[in-house]
Structures are given as structure tokens and as C-alpha cells.
Design a protein that fits this description.
It is built from 11 helices and no strands.
Amino acid sequence: MGFARYLQGNHADALRFLEIARGLIKPTDNWNVNLLSIMGDVYHALNRSKDSDEAFDKVLILNPEDEHVLNNYSYYLSLRKERLDKAAIMSKQLIEKFPNEGTYLDTHAWVLYQQGKYEDAFRYLNLAVDDEKSQSSAVWEHHGDALFQLGRLDEALKSWKKAMTLPNANQNLDKKIKKKQIVEN
């Protein structure tokens, strides 16, 4: 029920059910890792970063190679611009294992971007946009942001415009295109 409510976007209700489930599951149960992973995402959605990080850290103690957590945890840290060294280690672990997975390449690139490593970020974003199955507005927007930081405005505008044509486009994309500059959320 908690996972279903999370998918519906009802995060507070999701957390209520997940916390009930947490009280019913033994720490040694296999389901515990999945529950903690979902709770990390729900806490993030509720802007409870400390709780999210704690849930993800618990998962990584139990399963240091959990792909979902390595990706989401590193991405969430990059969005908050916190512990970027840790985020880089986690995201690099994923791309070493899955060098052609666009979602993971985008996450690693975004961590690098937040570290100010724009050339490296752009290199990984080029690989990410080549992965047709993970084409997303976010990947193309990140691609444009890296191009902008590298002083390649015309190419950045093309990437931002491509991002606008894809589902779930960031509402600030239109502002970026009109102002021809990065606009923070």
C-alpha cells in the first residue's frame, strides 16, 4: 500500500503505510532492503533529506551494490549539492558496471557537473543522450546545461529545445531558452 501511494504521488500517506510495514518486518527479512529503499525515496519526496540519507545508508550496508539506491542517493545528493565526493563514488560504481545505461550516465554526469567538472560531465552526457531507451527531458536539459557552461550557447539552446519536446519538461526550460542562460529552479 505504501509503494502504491508513493507511485500515486501521495507521499505522506505512503510514508504512513511504509512505517507500519517497517514495524512488522524483521531486519533480517529480504524485503527490508526494498522497504528501506522505497522509504529513502519517499523521505526525499517529502524533503526529509536526513531521513532519506539514513534509509539509503542502511540499504548500502545490507547491499552495497543496490543499483536503485546507488543511483537515486547519488542523484539526490547532487541536487542538494551535498557530499558530492560520496555521490561521485556511488555513481561511478554504477557506470563501471553499466557503461551504456543512460540513466546512470546522466546521474554520474550531473554529479560531475555539480562539482564543476563540466568537460567530464559533458562527455558522460553525450553517452547518455545516445541511449535511446533512456531519453528524457532531464538528460537533454543537463546536456544543454553542460554545453552552456562550456561556452557553447547555440548547442545548449538546441539541447534545451529538444528537452522541451519530451514529457515532464522542467518549467524553467522556457526561461533558459528565452534568457539564453541557466535559470535555477
